[in-house]
Amino acid sequence: MRTPHPQRLLELLGLAGFAITQPILDTLGRASGYLLFHGVTRSQLLVAGVLIAIVPAVVLWLATGAGRLIVLHRLALAALAAVAVVLLLPTEWWSLAPAAVAAAAVYVVHERVPLFGTWLRVTALGTVLFLFNLATSPAARSLDDVEAELRATRGNGAPVVMVVLDELPMRTLLDSSGGIDPVRFPSFAALAATSTWYRGATTVSSHTWHAVPALLTGRLPHDAGPTAADHPDNLFTLLGEHYDINAVESFERLCPASLCQPTSPEDIGVDGLLRAGWRVWQEEVGLREGDGASGLVEPVVQGRAEETGEPRTPDELLAQNHPGRFADFLAGIEATDRPVLHFLHLLMPHAPWRYLPDGTLYEPGEELGLDGDTWRDDKWPPRLAQHRHRLQAQYVDRLLGELLAKLRETGLFDRAVVVVTADHGISFEPRGARRGIEGGPYTDLAYADILHVPLLVKAPGQREGAVDESNVLSVDVLPTIASMVGVPIPWEFDGAPAGSGRRGDEKVFFTSFPNGFGVDPGERRVLSASALRSLMTRDLPPPADAADPHRDFRTGPSPQLVGRPSAELGPAVDAALDTPAPYVVGHLEEPVDGDEVAVAFGGVVAGTSSLFEKDGQPTFALMVPPELAARGDPTVHVTSSGGG
Q1: Pick the residue with more confidence: 157 or 257?
Q2: Residues 86, 284: Cα–Cα separation, whole Å
Q3: By CB neighbour count within 10 A (0-12 exposed, 13-18 middle, 19+ buried), where does 545 fall?
């Protein structure tokens, strides 16, 4: 029996490095948010890297009889060469031609040119380089813990409760009176009644990567990740000497492990990383639909997370992240003699929008009207998205109500500093950026909604609400908390206590955007606070009628039709409903006169939509009340503007 050929294993390692190892390890090395979001440790990352680098080549080597079957060995080399070429080219059918040429060339050259095999064996050293790059990558560095340098100042010992919501513009909470809508958002309104509402508060970045560190450090964005390694001076280390900490973070890790038990929606471990790498590689090669490397590098922005074990969608994992982690946070709030810092970053009402105000889950379906991060010219899809976003924000209000009740039950509410804010907003303006994470376009209206965020701060003992129109930035939140608990900040920072009036009319904002190694701080821009504030109150909904059972769904071009008999609208038209209630998307079987659609169930109108084109078809989309959708079979009626 012929002996194995270990040198042929080295040849496979060399080509597998370019076809498999480098693409996957490069992606993992850029996926700081993904790794932090899923509780991956540095050792797990490195073990997964070694397995990804070695196992594919070993499997191919064994499949070729440990290198003894030379024809199979050359076919394996040819296949790896083809994959490497496919990865270099766009995922299009024509890329198969150069891939086939590369495969044939490798097969022939390996057979006829002995030096080629020697060269392949030398390239196996690239595997060591790829592993070194992973070990020193930004992602690996983000997993390093730091020894917390705690501050000795005791302060007045007031408890601190800080809630950071995600992707919530201030305008979502308002009605046309300019105040917080007390019917749709009773918990926000109740907190505002005993807090100071900083109406002009804005974020300094549209990306969590920089926005949350700004809140917790008082520093403007710079080239650093959202970790304790990059931001060792923060709220947790400021108070950690004399406070216990109950912290539930999202994909950032600003609280050092020496102070906080890391939390993640699902600890995926080494096997989860291997599955993630395999999925990304399949998507990059074109064997599977998906976002490829971008889906792993930007899991939170794109609403992606990795399925593990039994098939589970990314949205299901994010759904688990919301109420489950909130419940964990709430369970950690109790009356204690020692002061506690309670911190929660909740990924809500961040897309995907899939919650009704009572917490009912529905299928989120397709987010219509977007080209990347920019809304198209159609007016209705972004308006519908805003409606779905508002419904999910109403569920957040419900959770906030549970938190306020728990604080009062434990006697903490009156004694505590309570801060509720958001990391950034989101815009729903046609032809404008949704978040600006792809570089814009930043219209004035988009700026207003991306920058303006809620900021409600209740001081210890405060019982009456106040509205402060001062120019406040998110970097002012930490100095505000520090002043209320009587602890000086021992590092250089850019903020000032809210309401100090030190900023004049300047708003500072960084146009953060994802890059190959995390998120770039982007361009620093200075805007007018007064000009932005004047845009925040445009096109607000009228105050909600508390007695109207359909108030949360009374939107669309003809909201007055909801609840009325569909017989008033004339005969139904031929149409297909492509998705079930409550998020109904459908299309007309053929064009008809009219520019609006009313969808009825059991003879009662449940909602209206403007018509727009999608895939060459006249399309409608709307949210309908579940109780009306349960009345009977659907019918679709076409009307003209205004419900006529």
Answers
A1: 157
A2: 9
A3: exposed
| Region of poorest pLDDT, from 57-71, 313-327, 622-636 | 313-327
Q: Above pLDDT 90, what percent of the chain?
A: 54
For residue 184, give the DSSP letter.
T
Q: How confident is the model at residue 404 (pLDDT cuts 50, 70, 90)?
A: very high
d(CA 622, CA 599): 9
CATH value of 160-265+316-536 in 1.10.340.30, 3.90.180.10, 3.40.720.10, 3.40.50.150: 3.40.720.10
How far is the C-alpha of 277 from the C-alpha of 620, rounded, in Å? 38
For 200-289, where are the E strands, in sequence order?
A: 244-248
Residue 17 gets which letter from DSSP?
I
Instruction: Take residue 332 and report the two structure tokens written for it.
Output: 């950690």
Q: How far apart are CA 415 and CA 333, in angstroms?
A: 14
d(CA 251, CA 111): 50
208-217 vs 477-485: helix axis angle to the nearest 10? 30
Quick check: 490 and 174 in contact, CB under 8 A? no
DSSP state of 173: G
CATH 2.60.40 corresponds to the domain 553-639: yes
pLDDT digits (tens, 9 = 90+) for 555-601: 999 999 999 999 999 899 999 999 999 999 999 998 888 899 999 99
Exposed, middle or buried by CB within 10 Å (0-12, 13-18, 19+), for 331?
exposed
Q: Distance between CA atoms of 614 and 610, rounded to whole angstroms?
A: 12
Q: Does residue 153 carry a pLDDT above 80?
A: no
Spacing of C-alpha 437 from chain mean position: 11
- The two tokens of residue 452 are 């303006």
Q: What is the mean pLDDT of the chain?
A: 87
Each residue's pLDDT tens digit, 202-215: 999 999 999 999 99
CA 644 to chain centroid: 40
Amino acid at 93: W
* Neighbour count for residue 566 (Cβ, 10 Å): 22
